[in-house]
Design brief:
heterodimer; A: mainly alpha; Fumarate Reductase Cytochrome B subunit; Fumarate Reductase Iron-sulfur Protein, Chain B, domain 2; 2 domains; 19 helices; elongated; B: alpha/beta; Rossmann fold; 4-stranded parallel sheet; 11% strand; binds iron/sulfur cluster
Chain lengths: 439, 263
């Protein structure tokens, strides 16, 4: 009988971690639906980006208020997780505060966890006010699930931190009355102010309170872990690979499509026989599709981007098109990509492999009007705190519209036929190109 | 502006068996747009003034393909790129300077993997290097003490991290350089990039160039300095829209330097 809590704990742990692993594998599988792209060069710069941007939050603090609050919550999150390690060991082996023998270092640890927990509480309250009370456009424009998601995470944090402090306060009181099992350990700079509330409470009730808080705390953490998959909060994990694999090229450099290069070289080659049969290896597969109309046409780094997006809207708030009332929102581009990818993933779960559902990213999620409003200014890329490029998805979708569907706005078609015919976007003769010198 | 400037072509250099120090890539706007042609001429004057041995491709130059690429037409872009690269490689071009950030970005970043590897400079970078080498002098002249704000072109700034060269040149003019609230990496687009220059904007409640002109007007400038022919057009239109064209000029950095010395 005495091992029942240990067994229950192990079951909860295995179930929690197991379900989480299952979903993460889905995320990885879905990301792999993307096309290949080489992001293995220049490892040094990649590690550095990850250290600076994901770990060091260097881009978060470009907006100081949100940035500093975010760092507090993030540090709290990481450091308080050390405490989770102790909880797990205690839970499995039925010990209590197994790290207590660390002595004054333990006091220091518990003390700093408590202070961080308090700071996290304060920050979370401020975050909630920013999201719900202050009129910040990038939050106000969120509706439905994304809006709730943002708040649910904050409530989670409040509950977890409160449970943590309650657990400590009850423990401290139990230590004070010399309850068996509750060894004197730890420093409690915050919960020492809560524990007097439990002054007259009996030892039995205190133990129930402490155990309840302990259990709810660890179960809460397991639930939170599993919540990530359904939430923008996945960024706490994916920000690391995403900043590592981010494009290192200058922001103005767009990739040159290799499939196009092959055809162009063939067309330009005076020795090529235009009626020659296609080379062996080309015959087999379908002709390559240019650009992207659905998530499978994007590359895996773009799909990883979509899962990493925190929906913060910094990109959209800097976007010139969005600021001037156009439909385009780079945040929406990322959220749509993720939603569609999840839909495709669910389709694969159900059918074993993807079965055409008559939908695609283009039109069903992202409209041509949004795509054509982009000035390719890179403001969204610069603003993103986790190195996402909404622009690269916009460009790939434009490529599909133009090269597969010839669906460019008519003004652009004129511009392009001018380039094709006279080597300039306007109807001027190439032979007049030097006329300016004697006008 | 009817005055002839001497502009040697690569073909002429080739005929004499010589190689210039640098190829001046004029670009479509610089060749055909009436406003941008003035920038081209101002830059040529500065090149002559600094005794730079330069040439242009003239009728052998063709659009870099930038607007086609940003519009999504990768085919047309690569056709243009490959044609231009063939011409430039035939002349064994090593170094290119251009007054258009779009040409600059495309040739510098997107031509190499198609076989066109050159050292590419924006004209503000090139002028800065002439200044540093003592070949060019920049003086305040008639702009001394004027309030000037510089609008960062997206394809020079964020796209390629060039923020200081144009500012260094402006400071040499002994002007009062005032930054807009959104500048450098946070600079707002003028609205022309990504092939927007060639189409009507999507429905919205404002044009991007008006939004950007308002940023500029907040600094109460005498002059709005630009480093891109397209930004120049957008800002000029914005200033006209605000009926401020009598008190505020929109000028390229090259024009400012050339005009300051009455070249
Ligand atoms: S690149 Fe396009 S989507 Fe991104 S901020 Fe600029 S206009 Fe908006
Ligand atoms: S793309 Fe980046 S900036 Fe935009 S909402 Fe997502 S995380 Fe925020």
């Amino acid at each position: 009988m005495q091992y029942i809590p240990n067994i229950l704990f192990v079951i909860a742990l295995v179930a929690g971690i197991g379900y989480f692993t299952k979903n993460i594998r889905k995320v990885i599988r879905n990301i792999r639906l993307g096309k290949d792209v080489d992001r293995s060069d220049n490892k040094g710069a990649r590690w550095k980006n990850m250290a600076m941007i994901a770990l060091g939050q260097s881009k978060m603090v470009r907006r100081p208020i949100a940035g500093i609050l975010h760092i507090v919550v993030y540090l709290g999150f990481i450091i308080i997780n050390l405490e989770v390690l102790e909880i797990i060991i205690d839970g499995i082996f039925g010990t209590h505060r197994v790290f207590a023998p660390l002595g004054s270092f333990y006091d220091f640890l518990i003390g700093s966890f408590e202070i961080l927990a308090l700071l996290v509480l304060v920050s979370v309250v401020l975050f909630w006010i920013r999201r719900n009370v202050i009129n910040i456009r990038r939050f106000k424009t969120l509706k439905g699930w994304p809006k709730n998601d943002g708040n649910i995470i904050l409530y989670f944090e409040v509950v977890l931190m409160t449970l943590f402090l309650t657990m400590n306060a009850a423990d401290l009181q139990l230590q004070a009355i010399g309850a068996e099992h509750y060894i004197k350990a730890g420093a409690y700079p915050v919960s020492q102010y809560i524990s007097p509330l439990f002054g007259g409470v009996s030892e039995g009730s205190l133990i129930i309170l402490e155990r309840t808080a302990w259990w709810l705390h660890i179960l809460g953490i397991l639930v939170f872990l599993n919540y990530l998959y359904f939430s923008k909060h996945l960024h706490i994990l994916l920000a690391f690979p995403n900043t590592f694999f981010a494009d290192l090229k200058p922001k103005g450099e767009f990739d040159n499509l290799e499939a196009v290069t092959k055809e162009v070289m063939l067309m330009m080659d005076p020795n090529a026989d235009p009626f020659a049969a296609p080379a062996e290896d080309e015959e087999a597969g379908e002709p390559e599709k240019f650009g992207a109309s659905d998530v499978m046409d994007l590359n895996w780094a773009q799909l990883l981007n979509s899962y990493t997006c925190t929906e913060c809207g910094r990109c959209t708030s800097e976007c010139p098109a969005n600021q001037t009332g156009k439909k385009l929102s780079p945040r929406k581009i990322m959220m749509d990509t993720r939603d569609r990818l999840q839909e495709v993933g669910a389709n694969i779960d159900k059918n074993g492999s993807f079965v055409d559902d008559g939908k695609q990213l283009l039109n069903d999620y992202i409209t041509a009007e949004e795509l054509w409003a982009c000035t390719s200014c890179n403001a969204c890329v610069e603003a993103c705190p986790v190195s996402i490029s909404p622009l690269s998805i916009i460009m790939d979708m434009r490529r599909y519209l133009v090269m597969e569907q010839s669906a460019a706005p008519s003004d652009l078609n004129n511009m392009m036929s001018n380039i094709e015919n006279n080597g300039a976007p306007w109807p001027f003769n190439q032979m007049d190109r030097l006329n300016w010198s004697n006008e | 502006m009817s005055e002839t400037v001497k502009v040697p072509t690569m073909a002429e250099y080739m005929a004499e068996g010589k190689q210039p120090e640098v190829l001046f890539w004029v670009g479509c706007a610089g060749s055909f747009d009436d406003r941008a042609k003035k920038i081209t001429k101002a830059f040529v004057k500065l090149l002559h003034n600094a005794n730079v041995d330069f040439a242009v491709l003239g009728t052998e130059e063709s659009c870099t393909g930038d607007p086609a690429k940003r519009a999504g037409n990768e085919f047309l872009f690569q056709m243009q790129a490959v044609t231009n690269i063939e011409v430039m490689n035939a002349y064994e071009i090593k170094k290119v300077v251009t007054a258009c950030p779009h040409c600059f970005n495309t040739i510098k970043n997107e031509y190499p993997s198609l076989g066109g590897e050159y050292e590419v400079m924006h004209h503000t970078q090139f002028l800065k290097s002439l200044l540093d080498e003592g070949r060019l002098t920049v003086e305040g002249g008639k702009f001394k003490g004027k309030r000037i704000t510089f609008h960062d072109p997206c394809y020079l700034g964020r796209a390629n991290n060039v923020y200081e060269a144009p500012r260094d040149l402006l400071k040499k003019l002994e002007v009062e350089l005032i930054e807009m609230k959104r500048c450098k990496r946070n600079g707002l687009c003028c609205g022309a990039g990504g092939a927007q220059m060639f189409k009507e904007p999507e429905p919205g409640n404002k044009d991007v160039n008006i939004e950007r002109t308002e940023d500029a007007l907040e600094t109460k400038p005498d002059i709005i300095a630009a480093g891109c022919p397209f930004c120049n057009t957008m800002m000029t239109d914005g200033v006209k829209n605000k009926e401020k064209e009598d008190s505020i000029e929109v000028l390229d950095v090259a024009e400012l330097i050339a005009n300051a010395q009455d070249l």
